[in-house]
Amino acid sequence: MKTEALIEALAADTKIERPILGTLVLWLVPAIALAAMAIHLILGFRDDLLMSLFTPLSVMRFALTAALGLIGVRLALLLARPEGRGLARLWPLAAVAAVALGLLVWAYFATPAGGRQMALVGKTMVTCLVTIPLLSILPVTAILMSMRNGATTAPALAGFVAGVAGSGFASMVYAMHCTEDSPLFYVTWYGIAIMMVAVVSTLIGSRVLRW
Amino acid sequence: MDDWGDLLVAANSGDGRAYARFLRTVTPVLRGVVRAKGASLGEAACEDVLQEVLLAVHLKRHTWQVGAPVRPWLYAIARYKVVDAFRARGRAIELPIEDFSDVLAADAGPDPTEAADMAKMIAMLDDRSARIVQMIGMEGANTAEVGQALKMTEGAVRVALHRAFKALAALRERYVK
Is A151 within 8 Å of B73 (Cβ atoms)? Predict the structure, then answer.
Protein backbone atom coordinates (compact mmCIF):
# COMPACT_ATOMS: atom_id res chain seq x y z
CA MET A 1 0.00 0.00 0.00
CA LYS A 2 1.36 3.41 -0.90
CA THR A 3 1.62 5.93 1.89
CA GLU A 4 -0.56 8.37 -0.02
CA ALA A 5 -3.34 5.77 -0.11
CA LEU A 6 -3.00 5.21 3.61
CA ILE A 7 -3.26 8.97 4.20
CA GLU A 8 -6.43 9.09 2.07
CA ALA A 9 -7.98 6.33 4.13
CA LEU A 10 -6.87 7.79 7.47
CA ALA A 11 -8.25 11.20 6.56
CA ALA A 12 -11.66 9.67 5.87
CA ASP A 13 -11.83 8.39 9.44
CA THR A 14 -13.06 11.44 11.29
CA LYS A 15 -14.06 9.54 14.39
CA ILE A 16 -11.85 10.54 17.27
CA GLU A 17 -11.49 8.96 20.68
CA ARG A 18 -12.66 10.79 23.76
CA PRO A 19 -9.99 12.87 25.55
CA ILE A 20 -8.36 11.03 28.45
CA LEU A 21 -9.70 13.40 31.11
CA GLY A 22 -13.29 12.55 30.19
CA THR A 23 -12.64 8.81 30.21
CA LEU A 24 -10.77 9.03 33.48
CA VAL A 25 -13.53 10.92 35.29
CA LEU A 26 -16.13 8.57 33.84
CA TRP A 27 -14.35 5.52 35.28
CA LEU A 28 -12.67 6.85 38.42
CA VAL A 29 -15.58 8.64 40.10
CA PRO A 30 -17.83 5.54 40.13
CA ALA A 31 -14.85 3.41 41.17
CA ILE A 32 -14.26 5.56 44.26
CA ALA A 33 -17.98 5.72 44.99
CA LEU A 34 -18.23 1.91 44.81
CA ALA A 35 -15.23 1.53 47.10
CA ALA A 36 -16.88 3.88 49.61
CA MET A 37 -20.11 1.95 49.38
CA ALA A 38 -18.28 -1.33 49.93
CA ILE A 39 -16.62 0.07 53.06
CA HIS A 40 -19.94 1.38 54.31
CA LEU A 41 -21.78 -1.90 53.77
CA ILE A 42 -19.06 -4.35 54.83
CA LEU A 43 -16.96 -2.69 57.53
CA GLY A 44 -19.09 0.38 58.28
CA PHE A 45 -17.98 3.98 58.69
CA ARG A 46 -16.52 4.83 62.08
CA ASP A 47 -19.20 5.99 64.52
CA ASP A 48 -17.49 9.28 65.23
CA LEU A 49 -16.77 10.06 61.57
CA LEU A 50 -18.15 13.60 61.81
CA MET A 51 -16.31 14.30 65.04
CA SER A 52 -13.09 12.96 63.56
CA LEU A 53 -13.24 15.66 60.91
CA PHE A 54 -12.51 18.18 63.66
CA THR A 55 -9.46 16.30 64.93
CA PRO A 56 -6.41 17.59 63.04
CA LEU A 57 -4.42 14.34 63.29
CA SER A 58 -7.37 12.41 61.93
CA VAL A 59 -8.02 14.91 59.17
CA MET A 60 -4.40 14.56 58.09
CA ARG A 61 -5.20 11.02 56.96
CA PHE A 62 -7.74 12.37 54.50
CA ALA A 63 -5.54 15.27 53.46
CA LEU A 64 -2.44 13.15 52.77
CA THR A 65 -4.24 10.36 50.94
CA ALA A 66 -6.37 12.77 48.89
CA ALA A 67 -3.19 14.65 47.98
CA LEU A 68 -1.61 11.41 46.72
CA GLY A 69 -4.78 10.69 44.75
CA LEU A 70 -5.06 14.09 43.13
CA ILE A 71 -1.35 14.55 42.39
CA GLY A 72 -1.24 11.00 41.07
CA VAL A 73 -4.19 11.60 38.74
CA ARG A 74 -2.62 14.80 37.48
CA LEU A 75 0.60 12.94 36.73
CA ALA A 76 -1.34 10.12 35.09
CA LEU A 77 -3.09 12.60 32.79
CA LEU A 78 0.25 14.13 31.89
CA LEU A 79 1.93 10.78 31.33
CA ALA A 80 -0.96 9.66 29.12
CA ARG A 81 0.35 12.14 26.55
CA PRO A 82 3.26 10.93 24.41
CA GLU A 83 5.44 13.93 25.28
CA GLY A 84 4.39 13.72 28.96
CA ARG A 85 7.45 11.75 30.01
CA GLY A 86 9.55 14.86 29.64
CA LEU A 87 6.99 17.07 31.38
CA ALA A 88 6.08 14.98 34.44
CA ARG A 89 7.64 16.06 37.72
CA LEU A 90 7.50 13.59 40.57
CA TRP A 91 8.56 15.91 43.38
CA PRO A 92 5.01 16.74 44.51
CA LEU A 93 4.54 13.06 45.37
CA ALA A 94 7.85 13.10 47.21
CA ALA A 95 6.72 16.23 49.06
CA VAL A 96 3.58 14.46 50.33
CA ALA A 97 5.73 11.52 51.41
CA ALA A 98 8.07 13.94 53.21
CA VAL A 99 5.19 15.58 55.10
CA ALA A 100 3.92 12.12 56.09
CA LEU A 101 7.35 11.08 57.34
CA GLY A 102 7.70 14.38 59.21
CA LEU A 103 4.39 13.65 60.89
CA LEU A 104 5.61 10.18 61.77
CA VAL A 105 8.77 11.54 63.41
CA TRP A 106 6.77 14.19 65.26
CA ALA A 107 4.33 11.55 66.53
CA TYR A 108 7.21 9.37 67.67
CA PHE A 109 8.46 12.10 69.98
CA ALA A 110 5.00 13.30 70.99
CA THR A 111 3.91 9.81 72.06
CA PRO A 112 5.05 8.72 75.53
CA ALA A 113 7.66 5.98 75.26
CA GLY A 114 5.34 3.42 76.83
CA GLY A 115 2.56 4.00 74.30
CA ARG A 116 4.62 3.99 71.10
CA GLN A 117 4.52 0.27 70.52
CA MET A 118 0.76 0.21 70.98
CA ALA A 119 0.19 3.23 68.74
CA LEU A 120 2.35 1.75 66.02
CA VAL A 121 0.82 -1.70 65.90
CA GLY A 122 -2.70 -0.53 66.74
CA LYS A 123 -5.54 -3.02 66.67
CA THR A 124 -6.27 -3.20 62.96
CA MET A 125 -2.94 -3.54 61.19
CA VAL A 126 -3.94 -6.67 59.30
CA THR A 127 -7.34 -5.27 58.30
CA CYS A 128 -5.61 -2.17 57.02
CA LEU A 129 -3.00 -4.07 54.99
CA VAL A 130 -5.67 -6.29 53.44
CA THR A 131 -8.45 -3.77 52.92
CA ILE A 132 -6.49 -0.94 51.29
CA PRO A 133 -5.09 -3.12 48.48
CA LEU A 134 -8.54 -4.68 47.92
CA LEU A 135 -10.18 -1.26 47.80
CA SER A 136 -7.48 -0.12 45.39
CA ILE A 137 -8.44 -2.63 42.73
CA LEU A 138 -11.30 -0.58 41.29
CA PRO A 139 -9.68 2.89 41.27
CA VAL A 140 -6.33 1.60 39.98
CA THR A 141 -8.07 -0.39 37.26
CA ALA A 142 -10.12 2.67 36.32
CA ILE A 143 -6.99 4.79 35.93
CA LEU A 144 -5.07 2.11 34.02
CA MET A 145 -8.03 1.49 31.70
CA SER A 146 -8.36 5.14 30.82
CA MET A 147 -4.60 5.45 30.34
CA ARG A 148 -4.70 2.60 27.86
CA ASN A 149 -6.69 4.96 25.73
CA GLY A 150 -3.83 7.41 25.96
CA ALA A 151 -0.36 7.11 24.52
CA THR A 152 2.19 6.96 27.28
CA THR A 153 5.82 6.59 26.33
CA ALA A 154 6.73 5.60 29.91
CA PRO A 155 4.49 2.59 30.67
CA ALA A 156 6.14 1.57 33.96
CA LEU A 157 6.16 5.08 35.40
CA ALA A 158 2.57 5.55 34.26
CA GLY A 159 1.64 2.32 36.03
CA PHE A 160 3.38 3.59 39.18
CA VAL A 161 1.48 6.88 39.32
CA ALA A 162 -1.78 5.05 38.57
CA GLY A 163 -1.04 2.80 41.56
CA VAL A 164 -0.22 5.70 43.87
CA ALA A 165 -3.30 7.65 42.79
CA GLY A 166 -5.69 4.70 43.01
CA SER A 167 -4.42 3.46 46.37
CA GLY A 168 -4.34 7.06 47.65
CA PHE A 169 -8.07 7.34 46.99
CA ALA A 170 -8.63 3.84 48.37
CA SER A 171 -6.84 4.80 51.60
CA MET A 172 -8.92 7.96 51.82
CA VAL A 173 -12.04 5.82 51.63
CA TYR A 174 -10.62 3.35 54.15
CA ALA A 175 -9.92 6.23 56.55
CA MET A 176 -13.67 6.69 56.87
CA HIS A 177 -13.79 3.30 58.56
CA CYS A 178 -10.45 3.25 60.37
CA THR A 179 -10.29 4.69 63.90
CA GLU A 180 -6.53 4.64 64.31
CA ASP A 181 -5.66 8.32 64.49
CA SER A 182 -1.99 8.08 65.43
CA PRO A 183 0.42 8.94 62.61
CA LEU A 184 2.62 6.16 64.00
CA PHE A 185 -0.08 3.80 62.78
CA TYR A 186 -1.42 5.35 59.63
CA VAL A 187 1.75 6.73 58.08
CA THR A 188 3.35 3.32 58.57
CA TRP A 189 0.59 0.95 57.49
CA TYR A 190 -1.28 3.07 54.98
CA GLY A 191 2.14 3.88 53.58
CA ILE A 192 3.14 0.24 53.25
CA ALA A 193 -0.21 -0.68 51.70
CA ILE A 194 0.11 2.16 49.17
CA MET A 195 3.64 1.11 48.28
CA MET A 196 2.58 -2.49 47.75
CA VAL A 197 -0.18 -1.41 45.37
CA ALA A 198 2.18 0.98 43.56
CA VAL A 199 4.71 -1.81 42.95
CA VAL A 200 2.07 -4.16 41.55
CA SER A 201 0.60 -1.40 39.41
CA THR A 202 4.06 -0.55 38.05
CA LEU A 203 4.44 -4.15 36.88
CA ILE A 204 0.96 -4.18 35.37
CA GLY A 205 1.47 -0.80 33.71
CA SER A 206 4.69 -1.84 32.04
CA ARG A 207 2.70 -4.58 30.32
CA VAL A 208 -0.73 -3.17 29.62
CA LEU A 209 0.18 0.43 28.79
CA ARG A 210 2.26 -0.44 25.72
CA TRP A 211 0.73 0.49 22.39
CA MET B 1 4.68 25.02 13.81
CA ASP B 2 1.58 27.06 14.55
CA ASP B 3 -0.03 26.06 11.28
CA TRP B 4 0.50 22.41 12.27
CA GLY B 5 -1.46 23.24 15.40
CA ASP B 6 -4.22 24.97 13.41
CA LEU B 7 -4.51 22.03 11.05
CA LEU B 8 -4.63 19.59 13.91
CA VAL B 9 -7.32 21.59 15.72
CA ALA B 10 -9.44 21.53 12.56
CA ALA B 11 -8.65 17.84 12.01
CA ASN B 12 -9.61 16.87 15.54
CA SER B 13 -12.92 18.66 15.21
CA GLY B 14 -13.80 16.49 12.22
CA ASP B 15 -12.44 18.40 9.20
CA GLY B 16 -11.18 15.58 7.00
CA ARG B 17 -9.52 17.86 4.45
CA ALA B 18 -7.53 19.72 7.09
CA TYR B 19 -6.58 16.36 8.51
CA ALA B 20 -5.37 15.08 5.13
CA ARG B 21 -3.30 18.25 4.78
CA PHE B 22 -1.85 17.77 8.24
CA LEU B 23 -0.85 14.19 7.43
CA ARG B 24 0.66 15.20 4.10
CA THR B 25 2.62 17.98 5.81
CA VAL B 26 4.10 15.82 8.54
CA THR B 27 4.71 12.73 6.40
CA PRO B 28 7.95 13.94 4.74
CA VAL B 29 9.30 15.00 8.14
CA LEU B 30 8.44 11.64 9.67
CA ARG B 31 9.88 9.84 6.64
CA GLY B 32 13.10 11.78 7.16
CA VAL B 33 13.21 10.68 10.77
CA VAL B 34 12.62 7.04 9.90
CA ARG B 35 15.16 7.02 7.08
CA ALA B 36 17.80 8.81 9.12
CA LYS B 37 17.51 6.09 11.74
CA GLY B 38 16.88 3.06 9.61
CA ALA B 39 18.80 3.60 6.41
CA SER B 40 20.27 0.11 6.74
CA LEU B 41 16.81 -1.45 6.54
CA GLY B 42 16.21 -0.24 3.02
CA GLU B 43 13.61 2.12 1.65
CA ALA B 44 10.71 -0.30 1.55
CA ALA B 45 11.06 -1.29 5.21
CA CYS B 46 11.39 2.37 6.14
CA GLU B 47 8.12 3.06 4.37
CA ASP B 48 6.54 0.24 6.41
CA VAL B 49 7.78 1.84 9.61
CA LEU B 50 6.56 5.25 8.46
CA GLN B 51 3.09 3.82 7.92
CA GLU B 52 3.12 2.32 11.40
CA VAL B 53 3.98 5.76 12.75
CA LEU B 54 1.17 7.37 10.75
CA LEU B 55 -1.33 4.81 12.00
CA ALA B 56 -0.20 5.51 15.58
CA VAL B 57 -0.49 9.27 15.08
CA HIS B 58 -3.96 8.68 13.70
CA LEU B 59 -5.24 6.55 16.56
CA LYS B 60 -3.63 8.73 19.23
CA ARG B 61 -4.45 12.14 17.84
CA HIS B 62 -6.86 12.79 20.71
CA THR B 63 -3.87 12.82 23.07
CA TRP B 64 -2.66 16.09 21.58
CA GLN B 65 -3.74 18.93 23.78
CA VAL B 66 -5.05 22.02 22.03
CA GLY B 67 -2.49 24.77 22.46
CA ALA B 68 0.41 22.42 23.18
CA PRO B 69 3.25 22.52 20.64
CA VAL B 70 2.69 19.86 17.96
CA ARG B 71 6.30 18.89 17.32
CA PRO B 72 7.21 17.43 20.74
CA TRP B 73 3.96 15.49 20.68
CA LEU B 74 4.52 14.17 17.15
CA TYR B 75 8.19 13.35 17.72
CA ALA B 76 7.38 11.52 20.94
CA ILE B 77 4.97 9.27 19.04
CA ALA B 78 7.45 8.83 16.19
CA ARG B 79 10.28 8.04 18.57
CA TYR B 80 8.24 5.47 20.49
CA LYS B 81 7.00 3.76 17.34
CA VAL B 82 10.30 3.86 15.47
CA VAL B 83 12.19 2.32 18.38
CA ASP B 84 9.44 -0.29 18.66
CA ALA B 85 9.44 -1.05 14.95
CA PHE B 86 13.19 -1.44 14.73
CA ARG B 87 13.25 -3.56 17.86
CA ALA B 88 10.63 -5.79 16.25
CA ARG B 89 12.88 -6.11 13.22
CA GLY B 90 15.74 -7.22 15.43
CA ARG B 91 17.70 -4.01 15.65
CA ALA B 92 17.95 -2.02 18.82
CA ILE B 93 18.47 1.64 18.10
CA GLU B 94 19.09 4.65 20.24
CA LEU B 95 16.97 7.64 19.40
CA PRO B 96 17.88 10.78 21.29
CA ILE B 97 15.04 13.29 20.99
CA GLU B 98 17.27 16.18 19.96
CA ASP B 99 18.22 14.21 16.87
CA PHE B 100 14.87 14.97 15.33
CA SER B 101 15.15 18.72 15.03
CA ASP B 102 17.79 18.62 12.33
CA VAL B 103 16.47 15.68 10.34
CA LEU B 104 15.81 16.57 6.72
CA ALA B 105 12.34 16.02 5.39
CA ALA B 106 12.23 13.30 2.75
CA ASP B 107 9.80 13.12 -0.13
CA ALA B 108 8.62 9.78 -1.34
CA GLY B 109 10.26 10.40 -4.70
CA PRO B 110 8.78 10.20 -8.20
CA ASP B 111 7.94 6.53 -7.86
CA PRO B 112 6.75 6.12 -4.28
CA THR B 113 7.70 2.91 -2.58
CA GLU B 114 4.93 0.44 -2.08
CA ALA B 115 5.04 -0.64 1.56
CA ALA B 116 4.15 -4.27 2.05
CA ASP B 117 3.20 -4.70 5.72
CA MET B 118 0.06 -2.58 5.75
CA ALA B 119 -1.41 -4.41 2.75
CA LYS B 120 -0.68 -7.75 4.44
CA MET B 121 -2.42 -6.62 7.60
CA ILE B 122 -5.38 -5.21 5.71
CA ALA B 123 -5.74 -8.63 4.11
CA MET B 124 -6.03 -10.09 7.61
CA LEU B 125 -9.08 -7.94 8.40
CA ASP B 126 -12.58 -9.22 7.78
CA ASP B 127 -13.57 -8.87 4.12
CA ARG B 128 -15.88 -5.93 4.54
CA SER B 129 -13.44 -3.85 6.60
CA ALA B 130 -10.62 -4.61 4.17
CA ARG B 131 -12.84 -3.59 1.27
CA ILE B 132 -13.76 -0.29 2.96
CA VAL B 133 -10.13 0.65 3.59
CA GLN B 134 -9.15 -0.29 0.03
CA MET B 135 -12.00 1.56 -1.62
CA ILE B 136 -11.26 4.76 0.26
CA GLY B 137 -7.47 4.54 0.19
CA MET B 138 -6.72 3.10 -3.23
CA GLU B 139 -9.81 3.76 -5.28
CA GLY B 140 -10.45 7.23 -3.98
CA ALA B 141 -14.04 6.60 -2.91
CA ASN B 142 -15.61 8.64 -0.13
CA THR B 143 -17.63 7.18 2.71
CA ALA B 144 -20.95 7.89 0.98
CA GLU B 145 -19.89 6.02 -2.16
CA VAL B 146 -18.59 3.12 -0.10
CA GLY B 147 -21.91 3.03 1.70
CA GLN B 148 -23.81 2.79 -1.59
CA ALA B 149 -21.51 0.11 -2.95
CA LEU B 150 -21.68 -2.02 0.18
CA LYS B 151 -25.32 -1.26 1.06
CA MET B 152 -24.42 0.36 4.37
CA THR B 153 -25.34 3.72 5.81
CA GLU B 154 -22.59 6.31 5.69
CA GLY B 155 -22.50 6.32 9.50
CA ALA B 156 -21.96 2.57 9.57
CA VAL B 157 -19.12 2.94 7.07
CA ARG B 158 -17.45 5.52 9.32
CA VAL B 159 -17.76 3.30 12.36
CA ALA B 160 -16.42 0.30 10.42
CA LEU B 161 -13.51 2.36 9.07
CA HIS B 162 -12.55 3.55 12.55
CA ARG B 163 -12.75 0.01 13.90
CA ALA B 164 -10.66 -1.23 10.98
CA PHE B 165 -7.79 1.10 11.94
CA LYS B 166 -7.98 0.04 15.56
CA ALA B 167 -7.93 -3.58 14.43
CA LEU B 168 -4.92 -2.89 12.21
CA ALA B 169 -3.02 -1.43 15.16
CA ALA B 170 -3.93 -4.45 17.27
CA LEU B 171 -2.90 -6.84 14.49
CA ARG B 172 0.40 -5.06 14.18
CA GLU B 173 1.04 -5.47 17.91
CA ARG B 174 0.44 -9.19 17.67
CA TYR B 175 2.38 -9.59 14.47
CA VAL B 176 5.34 -7.73 15.95
CA LYS B 177 5.53 -9.56 19.28
Answer: no
CA gap B119, B123 in Å, rounded = 6
Q: From CA A68, how far away is CA A88, in angstroms rounded?
A: 15
Q: Give kind and range of the element (H or E) at residue B175.
A: helix B154-176
Question: pLDDT, tens digit, for every residue of A3-15?
Answer: 888 999 999 998 8
CA angle, residues B75, B80, B81, in degrees to nearest 5: 100
Across the A:B interface, residue pairs with CB atoms under 8 Å apart total: 122
DSSP string, A147-205: HHTS--S-HHHHHHHHHHHHHHHHHHHHTTT-----HHHHHHHHHHHHHHHHHHHHHHH
**ipTM confidence:** 0.87
Beta carbons of A175 and A83 less than 8 angstroms apart? no
CB contact, 8 Å: B149 with chain A?
no
Nearest to A10 among B14, B17, B23 (CB): B23
Contact of A165 with A196, CB cutoff 8 Å? no
Nearest to B147 by CA among B162, B163, B136: B136
Q: Which residue of B has its CA nearest to A80?
A: B63
CB contact under 8 Å between B62 and A16, yes or no, is yes
Q: What is the largest CA-CA distance in chain A?
A: 78
Nearest CA in chain B to A9: B137
pTM to 2 decimal places: 0.89
